[in-house]
Amino acid sequence: MPSELEVGQIVEGTVSGIAPFGAFVVLPTGKTGLVHISEVADAYVKDIKDYLKESDKVTVKVLSMDPSGKIALSIRQAQPKAQRETPSPRDSGHRERRASSQISFEDKMQRFMKDSEDRLQDLRRNTESKRGGRGASR
């Protein structure tokens, strides 16, 4: 068991609590650190419970330690680059996100442009109806 933690060190820990903003992890030294929700996975994490639950064993990297005793941790940065490419959420609803990463840039751009145009069209329609339609005087 390591006697003291150092910034940059990678250690095993156990999730002791889940909050909307992150997860608390008990480290081998007995101290507790926080993995902010942005440091859980490379992909956008909307609900941390899709990725972690209490008593999960996790590998974390120590990002910082301040004099007041707060320890910032990262699960994302503790993983090798190859593993970081594909997040591993708990529920199958995230499979679509992984599949979308295999779509070409051009296809993504085309979809974005179509969605954007549709939104602009809806916005124009709503704005015109509030002004009294086309040709209404201001």
UniProtKB/TrEMBL annotation:
The record's Gene Ontology biological-process terms are: translation
Provide the species name: Sulfobacillus thermosulfidooxidans
InterPro entries from the entry?
Answer: NA-bd_OB-fold (IPR012340), Ribos_protein_bS1-like (IPR050437), S1_domain (IPR003029)
| Family annotation (SMART domains) | S1
> Sorted alphabetically, which PROSITE patterns does this protein's record hold?
S1
* GO CC annotations on file: cytoplasm
Look up the coiled coil feature and give its residue ranges.
none
Start-end of Basic and acidic residues biased regions: 82-94, 105-131
Q: Which domain of life is it from?
A: Bacteria
Q: Which Pfam families match?
A: S1 (PF00575)
Name under which the protein is recorded: RNA-binding protein S1
Domain S1 motif residue range list: 8-76
Region described as Disordered: spans on this chain: 75-138
Task: Kindly list the GO molecular function terms attached to this UniProt entry.
Answer: mRNA binding; structural constituent of ribosome
Q: Which SUPFAM superfamilies match?
A: Nucleic acid-binding proteins (SSF50249)
